[in-house]
């Protein structure tokens, strides 16, 4: 495995809860409107309905993205944000 080498200071996964049958709309909104920061988004089964991987230059920008933008997307009920620990993040 190799370590992540992107220049983003902050990488996080945002888990999003939405009402039934709204996951696709939220995924599309994330990728269409916030593609500068959202590198991946997917509808999933389980505790969350949508998971988005985001990469930003700062914690402050992460805060603004989640609090001011993602939480205001129609149908978004709950978000949970998990910030990656860079030295323990590996990808293939």
Automatic annotation (TrEMBL):
Residues 38-84 form the Transcription regulator AsnC/Lrp ligand binding domain. InterPro entries: Dimeric_a/b-barrel (IPR011008), Tscrpt_reg_AsnC/Lrp_C (IPR019887). It comes from the Bacteria. This is Transcription regulator AsnC/Lrp ligand binding domain-containing protein. It comes from Streptomyces formicae.
């Amino acid at each position: 495995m190799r370590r992540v080498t992107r220049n983003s200071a902050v990488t996080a996964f945002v888990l999003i809860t939405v009402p039934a049958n709204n996951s696709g709309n939220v995924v599309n909104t994330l990728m269409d409107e916030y593609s500068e920061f959202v590198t991946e988004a997917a509808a999933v089964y389980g505790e969350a309905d949508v998971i988005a991987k985001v990469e930003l230059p700062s914690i402050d920008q992460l805060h603004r993205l989640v609090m001011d933008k993602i939480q205001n997307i129609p149908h978004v009920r709950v978000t949970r944000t998990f910030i990656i620990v860079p030295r323990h993040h590996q990808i293939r």
